Amino acid sequence: MATNKRVYFFGDGQAEGKGDQKELLGGKGAGLAEMTQLGIPVPAGFTIVTEVCNEYYESGNTLPDGLRREMSEAMARVEAIFGLRFGDEANPLLVSVRSGARVSMPGMMDTVLNLGLNDRSVEGLAEATGNRCFAFDSYRRFIQMYGDVVLGVESEHFQKSLEEVKHAAGAAQDCDLDAAALESLIPRFKAIVEEHTGKPFPQDPQVQLLTAVSAVFSSWNNQRAKRYRKIHGIPGHWGTAVNVQAMVFGNRGEDCATGVGFTRNPSTGEHAFFGEYMVNAQGEDVVAGIRTPEPVNKIEGPGSLEERFPECYQQLLEIAARLEKNYRDMQDIEFTIQHGKVWMLQTRTGKRTGRAAVRIAVEQCEEGLIEEREAVLRIDPNSLDQLLHPTLDPKAAKTVLAKGLPASPGAASGKIVFHADDAERISKEGTKVLLVRVETSPEDIHGMYAAEGILTARGGMTSHAAVVARGMGTPCVAGCGALRIDLDAKQLHVGGKVFDELSVLTIDGGSGEVIEGDVPRIPADLSGEFGRVMEWADRYRRLKVRTNADTPEDAARAREFGAEGIGLCRTEHMFFGEDRIEAVRRMILAADEAGRREALKDLLPMQRSDFIGIFKAMDGLPVTIRLLDPPLHEFLPQEDSQIEALAQAMGVEFKTLKIKNESLHELNPMLGHRGCRLGITYPEIYEMQARAIAEASCEAAAAGVDVQPEIMVPLINHVKELEPLRAMIVRVLSEVQAEKGVKVDTLIGTMIEFPRACLTADKIAAQADFFSFGTNDLTQTTFGLSRDDAGTFLPEYVDKGIYPIDPFVSIDVDGVGRLVKMAIELGRGVKPGMKIGICGEHGGEPASVSFCHAAALDYVSCSPFRVPVARLSAAHAQLKQG
Amino acid sequence: MATNKRVYFFGDGQAEGKGDQKELLGGKGAGLAEMTQLGIPVPAGFTIVTEVCNEYYESGNTLPDGLRREMSEAMARVEAIFGLRFGDEANPLLVSVRSGARVSMPGMMDTVLNLGLNDRSVEGLAEATGNRCFAFDSYRRFIQMYGDVVLGVESEHFQKSLEEVKHAAGAAQDCDLDAAALESLIPRFKAIVEEHTGKPFPQDPQVQLLTAVSAVFSSWNNQRAKRYRKIHGIPGHWGTAVNVQAMVFGNRGEDCATGVGFTRNPSTGEHAFFGEYMVNAQGEDVVAGIRTPEPVNKIEGPGSLEERFPECYQQLLEIAARLEKNYRDMQDIEFTIQHGKVWMLQTRTGKRTGRAAVRIAVEQCEEGLIEEREAVLRIDPNSLDQLLHPTLDPKAAKTVLAKGLPASPGAASGKIVFHADDAERISKEGTKVLLVRVETSPEDIHGMYAAEGILTARGGMTSHAAVVARGMGTPCVAGCGALRIDLDAKQLHVGGKVFDELSVLTIDGGSGEVIEGDVPRIPADLSGEFGRVMEWADRYRRLKVRTNADTPEDAARAREFGAEGIGLCRTEHMFFGEDRIEAVRRMILAADEAGRREALKDLLPMQRSDFIGIFKAMDGLPVTIRLLDPPLHEFLPQEDSQIEALAQAMGVEFKTLKIKNESLHELNPMLGHRGCRLGITYPEIYEMQARAIAEASCEAAAAGVDVQPEIMVPLINHVKELEPLRAMIVRVLSEVQAEKGVKVDTLIGTMIEFPRACLTADKIAAQADFFSFGTNDLTQTTFGLSRDDAGTFLPEYVDKGIYPIDPFVSIDVDGVGRLVKMAIELGRGVKPGMKIGICGEHGGEPASVSFCHAAALDYVSCSPFRVPVARLSAAHAQLKQG
Known about the structure:
The structure is a homodimer. Chain A is an alpha/beta fold. In chain A, 44% of the residues lie in helices and 18% in strands.
């Protein structure tokens, strides 16, 4: 079951393990072995391998036979190196016992430092080091950590006792205590242990060691670790390793220190050693924030390690360079300086911001450290969001009022308003506003355009507000259930406070936070490195990336971000313009087809000019235009006053209009009379749109634009729906092209967004030039889950691990993905090489893009600001495929 | 392409074709050939085979070479038999030219009678028959029919001219005209033809014949025929045959007659010759209703054929017996008596009511005419509905106001009321009421129970009203868009009339008609024959039939109808009882889990007693109980006044309750927070239900009842939803069984009602003892189609043939069916032999039952009144499988 060898020694330039044995040694253990072999000074020690963790659990929480012997052998080598003996009462070798899993699980598991001390050896240590204060401080720390980790005595009991002693001694900080005070703590701490465990504190160093090792293995299965693994998808059987290592001390005097650092700046990516340290302190003090640490690099401020320990600083620079050369990536390190000598305690690949990731990857590539492919792979596509949008200044203070869904990235501040009309009016006066709504509807579009940011109380990651905001690149926090909006009083109740209209709030669409007041922000910054990385990514990807855009402005912006066409142009957004909504409403409320045709005549020239604008912006690239999709009632006024006004404008009675309005109400509009169902029952609507597209493409082509229109019929379920609509479109195209004397090749395809379309895609393919998956609706119907209503339970589902991730965020491979694959297979089975893409919200999400790549789609289409993310994700998918 | 032989002669006991050659000869031609061979007197003639119809179309609407020669040869044999010559001017042989497709398409195609007459031969006919009146009547009929059918001159032109002549002659009826008047019509009719076609009426009988044959072929593709074929799924390539047959005349004097009949009574099934006839008339006169025909059988009334033509009647009885013996089924015949001699013109299997079908099948089986299996197959399962519910008296006059969907069969009359409360109150006073609503909700249940019938303006075949009404066996017309309900005025506007509350209306839930006043009805009548047939059906079926029932009463009734268990017991219906809705609302509106548990405590004993009642009614049979399914807002009051009352009862503020109420509102409740999603977020609800089931089953078992509970978790999508719920149920079951000291085997399974559940059924099966398909929701999600909202376009879809049939009525085999099969395969792949059923509305529809049989389901479950239909359908499926 286990390998024979359970314990791997490292120290003095020799290590039994290797850096690539993370599975066996854990991340920390592998790093220590690797550094040791590189000749970097690492305190000697040994790693008990991860497999022992499983043995430990399988045998009912006992350490396996023979482990003790292997540990003793390794310990003897450590003792030899240091010339000290573990358990020696005169001058004891002390050790740390640390967990170390295959991947970092920060703060999840436990550590014991200074192990090996007891009532007698503490005196020996005091004598040997000539530092009684240090010795007793080490002992009291040990009792506290061991008590907590191994014996389960809550830390606060010790802390309380410590505070009492400090109070009595008039000491402000722990380090202000003198040796006597520290010594006085020992019996108190031991009493606490005995009180809570019923047993005295163990004096035998061997017992201390074995129980500490057991405790670290046990901590693998504590609640917070299990929860962390569940969230991060880490299997329980991986287990943790345990590292036992000779202590070196950063707290043995003023020529001692401890610190953490990064081989490059993790915020900016700048190539400079970056970090912080503390003189005369132990590692845990830095974390605990007992004192404020000083910077490592003198550029960062006074009191730097560079100035105070110049030789050590040079040593660290050399070590950093050696580590980067070895690991070929930026490292996150921990070090201790003991009497002027640098010891390395940990190295691992450092986390970084998106900005830093891009700069580091490009510069490391230029330095010859990594290849272009690797540089591309180094950047987490999701992290690009930070580069494309303003972000909150991480240094700024903030009062978070509530948290909603991070629906559209970027941070924004503004005066709150509760109506789209107000947003438009007030922003025209030059005031920045945040639009706050229970939920948004297509009627709010003008207000959403005018606002700096959007905040809603209801709706999920793919609610109207979220989708539109992402499309516009406007920050949005959606589904913030803690908001209570009182429209009558024009007040927002949140976080126990009341905000009147025009109060200033800030939202962070990247985290979902709603914050009081105006929080400073860092603007977006598209550096040259960003362009380089995108260029490289494009070299390696197969999947095309298009954008979802409804206006020439959005189209142009998306093109700047690298979009290779429009995958989804929603014509309904054009219906809401001030100049057209009235004609749209006349059309909907007309008594008969003749009346509808009359109103449609007024809409035709407007639609035509919309399309011309978009064709021009996308000169030379394909433009997929979706025919009208939403149910008609979305275009109608909701409030009586608006209905009254419309009735007057149309010259009909209020009651007639009200009844007609109500008759269009639907119980489940998502599953209602929309998409091609409108095209079937009111063919004149689609006919007008087909004509507008045909006329626009002829006109643009005549003006020298390279037009590549693709007409997309939404919501097809059955080939017999597509058949008559396709025939109508073909007829209109040829009529218009004959009239204009211009020939424009136009594809006619369909969205695949309901399970039935997937299941019968072979039949539908006979009538379609292309497919485009609408994975939002496909997810809604496959799961029977309304994205607008899921807010009441979906977060709990994700929280409880029922769904690994919100299926509207990342495509559900087992269910939705299976239908997608089925449809591709059926469609291409009939039409080999058929063009197939995806235009749902998933098109800009890395894991979904990876799925799309693997499923052999031709393109993904996403909102303009997600285009770089999709480009990079597509490159990752290709490169990872190998 | 075609067989060599295109023309099949029949006459004088000899026929070239056979009765089983319907594909080649059409139904009529095959019947004529068969009768001829049986020695039954049939006027001689010949059939031009269906394949010629295709040749005709393929060659651009021309008759194929050689056909004319074959026709001439056959015509010569006809001439020889009659001793007359076609086209002879002295004494012409006249012929009829009739269509005859493989299956009957009543009234869809055309017929020409008396063909062969012209200006000269009409005189010859007058002389030869000594009946000038008859001769000219025949000629004018011929010009009119030929003009209409062959030349496309609308019949009304001739009709108008005929009316003028009748007016001038003072004749009330056609037959009152004398020879001179009839003769005067000829030039007028000929002028009409010339006026409309620009050509004179053709005088050449050969030309008349060939053009008439062509016209009949052409009529195969006229609009109404194509439409009929589309609706009935008849392929266009079948084509029609053409029958050319010597004329015999029922209008040549008082010893002549024409009639139609059935070998058994098609309404009651009584074994007696049944029909009507007309003296001195041609077949078309019976159809045209120019005079009222007399009965054939003297029991039916005076002036019968039995009394007036006793010998002919005897002949007809003998023929009827011979035909039944030959065809082994009841026949629908046409005959003509010419000068006292009976001629048969048609025989085909007769249509019949459900009542008649059952009686005929049983009696024919008893008579030894057919076997038991065939008797079972003879009965259309859908026709059983008529037996189980009262139907409108077909003889009663009725004023149809509007037509809605035939949502629940049976006819009902009553005073209309607009509120469920009124329905309950007024019916308690002994008055029969019809409940009229825009749409019903679970809140209306008590009123629906009280009403004789239910009428709604909105909602489809599986709307709440429809489903509940079918479950209760209450007639219902749903989605009648023509209704306008004015709740303020308590008035119903329909069919241009206004009905106050308590006006009497009648609805026919079998046809969807809404009728003014009280129309007499025929009560349901479960005859002994019905029982026999059901017994036989049970012998042949494999599929079990369960019922959907929520009360002991429904369960008992379903058991009488042969239900073999409950496949779906909806617990939510129990939540609406007067005594519990308040506790339910307290539970929903409670601020926390403790509050919910408090309210649930009050519900527990009521649920328990519900279940005990059902277990007793289903002693020895399985009972599948579904845990709470609908979204919670369905239980809340909708109107402010109700909310106010509840707020007072609960001692909370109106506004608080109103806001909470609104916060539960959902945009797409069908896809919202319901089913197991409630079980996940509010585990205490399902826990109470599990406990109630467990306690009830223990208590019933202790009382000697054979309890077979099956707990069904609704809306599962992901195995991880089922996992914790199953664990909870298992825990509660064992707790309760330990408390009570009784062991009851209880299955725990899930509904499969979303595509994702089908796609991952292998994983879900690991946690489920059984699956039950909820094909309503599965259809809604697979199609993205809300059954409540589909009314605005689904009828048009079916009408246009986009969907062959409403997918909520009959299961969509290509889409939904494919998912069902996939789920069965995946589920049984993991758990061989797993029990799988269906409990959606499709469970009682014959085609769907047939699908379920083929898909190897274990059972279907349907509303009590559909149980016999399902039993018979299941037998059909098995028997047809062979």
